[in-house]
User: Fold this.
Amino acid sequence: VFYSGFNLILVLIATALVTFVEPAAFGAGTTEIQAYINGTAIPKILRFKTLAVKTIGITCIISSDLFVGKLGPSVALGAGLAAGLSQGFRSKRITKFLHRILPSKLIEWFDLTLVRNDRQKREFVCCGASAGVGAAFNAPVAGVLYSLEGIGSGWNSELTWRTFLASVVCVFILRLISTGISSSADSGLFELWIRSDYRPTYSFLE
Assistant:
């Protein structure tokens, strides 16, 4: 009874957040992100408030032992973070800071200071969605293929490399973090490189 009541409280928290705080955070978010990348403007779908409500809601839902997949939330969260970064690049202060810490060729290749129109912002969101999928499944190539086949209608070689690099960096950081916080020998970045008998383990639900 205690566990059922606790799970019910978590579900009610997630439901209240979506109902009263930000209704745009409903659902997995995959369809909305796909529509946005293909040119359909959906109000409030990529705002920080929506991202925060979706993050807290997904955490509560997963903690309540409900059946929730990883694909939809990872796409929505990655796309939301990328949209926030693309807005930040419009600031002159951030542009000057990027020129100080990053090589000019890297900035030119990634167009970090040229996110000025909606098309470039959609491409940035596509990179974020690809990174989210790669981090969710520990598979950078899967993130690129999902962005290519699942949510994007137009494609080019530059965007392919950008989504791949975003996915690789995201998965690398995730594995690096799991190395530091996990006590399991089969998780983390360095165990994956050192152990020749590495075999990923999955639960029945996964």
